[in-house]
Amino acid sequence: MNLLLDSFWRAAAYCLHPRVIMLSVLPLVLMAGSALALGYFFWEPALDAVNAAIASWELMSTLVAWLEGIGLAGLRAALAPLVVVFISTPIIVVVALLVVAVLMTPAIVALVAARRFPSLQRERGGSMLGSAFGSLWATVAALLALFVSVPLWFVPPLVLIVPPLIWGWLAYRVLSYDVLAEHASREERRELIRRHRGPLFGIGVVTGYLGAAPSLVWASGAMAVVLAPVLVPLAIWVYTLVFAFATLWFAHYALSALQGLRAERDASAAATPSRPVGEAVTIDAPPPLPPLPPM
């Protein structure tokens, strides 16, 4: 618990570092440009698809007609944009995590290592290929889980539990590998994840909830759609900062745990008596044989 809290406040303090703030701008620019390009080409087709789905769903059409009958005439026009934004938000979160992992994680880990652990030996137990493969399969699994769990989002308690748990699991899987890839050997990384799986998953879940917080801005309804050109880039930047904070939290925790593991290993090795190299080995002479009995 001390290690968890210590790494938390250190990560929060590092978020104010100018280098971290500057690093958060690059993913924002790339993702905002991508979001605007996708919106330019796919916004209208997405709205048409949602409107067609609502029209083909008799229960939803009846509900919308009833709401319009009681005075909510603008609901039909605002419903489709809200659905598109609501569905695209988890995808933005996932892409933000991957962009941070690719562009920011190496720089952030290098910053933490240079400032706190300059003498920590680099074992290079991970690779870029391993990181890419692990991130890919974890992302596919998270997207499938998000897709399968969409019906649960309409249950008020579960919408506050299921998506953050999935995002937290994804952060745990991706960042646990990435922050240790440079400094830990493969055996050390596996041992650390085995020992600290609970706290590492807890860090992922907390950051998953922090990443879900900007989604509440869409609860303002139609006004959120009107302000989408401003709110979407702002939400992306907030997501990026949240995942930068998650990377810092994972880095401070994992590198501290790695340093403790090596100190424990060195202390165990020092406590084991060993013969200095080159020391002569004395072999005691065997006892003399008893005299033979007389013939």
Can you put this structure into words, describing what you see?
- The chain has one domain (2-41, 86-268).
- The protein has helices at 2-14, 18-56, 58-69, 75-116, 128-148, 156-159, 162-178, 186-195, 197-212, 222-226, 228-271.
- By secondary structure, it is mainly alpha-helical.
- The model has no long low-confidence stretch (mean pLDDT 79).
- The protein is elongated.
List keywords for this structure.
single chain, 295 residues, elongated, 11 helices, mainly alpha, 0% strand
* End-to-end C-alpha gap: 81 Å
Decide which structural class fits the backbone: mainly alpha
Q: Indicate the mean pLDDT.
A: 79
Query: Total helix count?
Result: 11
Unreliable parts: none
Helix content: over 70%
Report the order of strands and helices: HHHHHHHHHHH
Strand content: under 5%
| Count of DSSP strands | 0
Number of domains: 1
Subunit arrangement of the protein:
single chain
Radius of gyration, rounded? Answer: 28 Å
Most strands sheet: none
Topology diagram in text:
Layout: H1 2-14, H2 18-56, H3 58-69, H4 75-116, H5 128-148, H6 156-159, H7 162-178, H8 186-195, H9 197-212, H10 222-226, H11 228-271
Helix pairs in contact: 1-11, 2-4, 2-11, 4-5, 4-7, 4-11, 5-7, 7-9, 9-11
